Amino acid sequence: MSHNQPQNKERILIKGAYLMTQDNKLGNFVGDVLVADGRIVEVGRDLSDDRARVVEGTGNAVLPGFIDTHRHNWQGALRNLGPAWTYEEYRSNVQIGLGQHFEPRDVHVGNLAADLMSLDSGVTTVRDESHISNSPEHSDAAIAAHWESGIRAVFDHGWPSTEAEQWQFGSNRTHPADIRRIRNEVLSDDSARVTLNAMLRGPELSTPDVSAQDIRLARELGLRISMHVGLGEWGADQQAIRQLAETGLLASDMTFIHCCTSTDEELRMLAAHGATASVAGALEVFMPGLGQPATNRLLAAGVRPSLSVDTETIVSGDMFGVMRATLAYQQLILAGAAGPMDRIADLPTFDAADLLSFATIEGARAAGIDNRTGSLTAGKEADLIMIRLDHANLLPATNVAATIVAGGHAGNVDMVVVAGDVLKENGVLKAADTVFDEAAASRDRLFHAAGLPLPA
């Protein structure tokens, strides 16, 4: 059977749920969703289908699955190591210290653990920023985990974490050539559940000449591009978005990650060229050294951002925490306690409904898959979640968007469907518990290989 074929062929009719469609033509209403052959067949009221299994949706919210546009999945077995780490401590301990010791089996189990945690918390699509391309076998192992987990994945092929210091901050090394093999032999189908993008370093992490060469390669292969920019003082000095605009390389096929110290003018350049952005609100709040979330400044520039986790070594891998942290930073802006880049008058604000939009349809747009997912729209692939609103932590659900953002957690996610496959139902994830035992064993092996004592 092809990787891309749904495993669960049953027809499902969800009845009487509060639908948060993220489709501007449909809006929010109490109604029904019919799923068949991996797609959303119909969204409306009083639907019926004699062949479908009926799922009672009363007392539940149904919405598109969350879309995480930037997560380093390979670190899934290293979660929660350093919530108080600075950016330099994270780079030293994980990318430089442990990354060089990863074997393909460690990448596989790390990606699988990250995928399963994502699915359990309602993330149906992840853009896997994979800077663990230590060998072709490492990349193949990461991709295989995405197929195995059932998640929708955009595999962003990056650089190695061997000789990690030689690949960042002024590196003169061009992007690993193995991306050609992956494009031609492994992920050539852009309609598949697992697809390929290019995670490039850009002028901030490489050089202008290398950046231009890498961008030409990605576009030759027909790949969308992601790029980390605005990283602390270095990002403010380099102004990568400006460099790309001035050299004619800035375009709508790019997603810029973080943008914490990118200038307001750069964000306007981003918007003018139709590019997208990914805000890792929780990570940027927790980790000193990057700068603060650029959400409000992006809105001021005309960009509705997507949201992302970044690394589970620092923050929880669910979108509920990301939404809350992103909102918390906005409230610091309003209280006059924000970082220096946000101390300007009349910054636009966002609310809980906006955050759900950032976490769904805007994520799909950033990943270039909004024609396939991101909203409850007939004809799109059936990526959706159902959240129980009758759980004690959410009652009474007066404003559903605010209820989900302020109080939701993975335990409230009752059902998860990806491409029509039911991967979580009745609050239970359909996956083997042994994955997390394997993740613990991988963590132990990596610490031993690096000569590090296991944390108490």
UniProtKB/TrEMBL annotation:
Keywords: Hydrolase
Keyword presence, Protein biosynthesis: no
NCBIfam families found in the cross-reference section: PRK08204.1 (NF006056)
Positions of the Amidohydrolase-related domain: 62-422
InterPro entries, A to Z: Amidohydro-rel, Metal-dep_hydrolase_composite, Metal_Hydrolase, MTA/SAH_deaminase
Segments crossing the lipid bilayer: none
Domain of life assignment: Bacteria
Entry-linked Pfam families: Amidohydro_1
GO molecular function: hydrolase activity, acting on carbon-nitrogen (but not peptide) bonds
Record keyword Hydrolase present: yes
Originating organism: Streptomyces liliifuscus
Name listed for the protein in its UniProt record: Amidohydrolase family protein
